Each structure stands twice: as C-alpha cells, then as structure tokens.
Amino acid sequence: MNSAEAYITGSCIIRHHGIRLNGALLWEADRSMDLQEWLRAGYDRFSGQYPKFHKMDALSKLGWLAAEVLLKHAPVQALPPETVGMVLSNRSGSLDTDIRYYATVKDIASPALFVYTLPNIVMGEICIRHGFKGENIFFVSENFDAELMSSYPVQLLATTPLQACLCGWVEVMGDDYEVALFLLEKTPRGMARPVTAEALNELYSNNEIST
Amino acid sequence: MADLKKQIIEQLNLQEVTPESIGNDEPLFKEGLGLDSIDALELIVLLQQHYNIRIANPEQGPEVFYSIRSMAEFIVAQQTAKA
Prior knowledge:
The structure holds two protein chains of two kinds. Chain A is α+β, with helices and mostly antiparallel strands. Chain A has helices spanning 35-46, 58-71, 95-105, 111-114, 121-130, 146-159, 197-206; strands at 3-15, 18-21, 24-28, 84-90, 136-140, 164-173, 176-185, 193-195.
C-alpha cells in the first residue's frame, strides 16, 4: 500500500566511501581506506563520544553512522520513544560477521562477535543510541525492495502508534557495502514527499556517488 | 599491571582509552571504565588466552574483575598455585 498519509522527510545514502544527506554530498573519503578505517573516520567526523561504536560489527557501524547523519537535525527524538520504529533490510543478513565469528570458534569463541550474529542487532544499536522503542523488523531480500520499503512502513504508520519510521537498506559483505536509509513521517516537513515505491527508488538510484 | 591494561584495551577494543587513563583501583564495571556483561565474557576469554586461567567458580567474577589490581592479584595467585 502506497499512501500520501506518510512522507519521506530525509534520506542518507552511503556508498563508495561517501555520504549523501538528502541528496547532497556531505563527505567523501579516500577510496584506498579499508572499510573499518573509513568507518572510524566517519565516526570521528559525524559523531564521537560514543565508545561502544568501536565494538560494533561493520553492519551495525554502517547503520548507526547513517542514522547519526540522518537524525542529526531531524526532530524525531522529540517524539515519544514508542512512536519511532524501524524497518530495515539487506541481502547478506549478518553473514559477514557470522564468518568472522566462525573463525574464532576454532580457538575460543568470541562473545563480542557472537552478539552481532543477527542482522537485526543494527536496529538495536540505533534504538539504544536514539532511545527509540517502537516496532521494528528486519527483512532479507536480494536487492533493495522499494515496494516493500514503502508499503510495510506506511502500514505501520497507519495502523500503529508510530509517528516516524526509519526504513531502508543496510548491506555489508567483506569490502562491499551500501546503505540507503530513509526517514518516513506522518507529518510532512522539509523536503517531504509522499511515500511511494517510485519515490524511494528514485532517491535510492539518484544518490549515486561518482565511481 | 601495565601489560594487563594493554591486553584489556586490545581485547575489548577500547579505542578511546589509553593504559595511562585506567586507574589500578578504578572499578572496571558501571562507573569507571563502564564495561558491560559482554565485556565480562571477553575478560574471561582474555584470562584463558593470555594466562591459561579458567574461572572455575562464576561467583568469583565480581571480585576478580573489580579492578585492574584485583585481576592482577588473581592472575599472580593462580600462577603461583600452578607453579
């Protein structure tokens, strides 16, 4: 179900070591950095003062960093915690971390890695950071599914107490990664446009960072 | 204790902490370093990997992991008992 009763009020796209907020390139770093180096540089640039970031796996760091950028000037944190939800998806689930964890099992299994062997942990990290307590769900699909990412969150916004919902795609496997995080709200503001699959697809595709 | 601090920083990935900033008697959990339950499990792994010491009685945990000094004293006691 697509509906004009919910609005896209923000987007954050992370690809090729660059971050775009609402279509504008915020930061692009040297492509020779490895992903962990780049994530640390992004953390230093856009956040800091959150040591737990360093303990997260790459999937959580990517989603957390995108949320940090997207929500910096968004007033969703003024909403009651139970009214902000999340619908995320990706292709590889937590496989990137699963493989790293499996490698430790041969010696002494790492508790710190084990806790990230579920893809929905990234949502927990974002919720802890921002205090969100609304409904959330994580889907695994081959590609970014704009139809699903428009219909399911809109349904949540229409039928539950949610006032805002973060939705999108947070994928990482080895050095390949991509984040497309959108903020959907019941009340329009800023660059708000009605939530449709076409609109999400356009934002997802048009935010390409030069390759 | 300086080596133990370095090992803890590496094991727990405390990237914004230096060995010099950890007090020998500072509580490791809650206040002080602010470690959590997953960190406690990693400290158990550290004892196994670096010192071949297993915590036989889980109830010892809060006492052993109270501070750098209590951990160091526990390690020395275990090594002395093995010698």
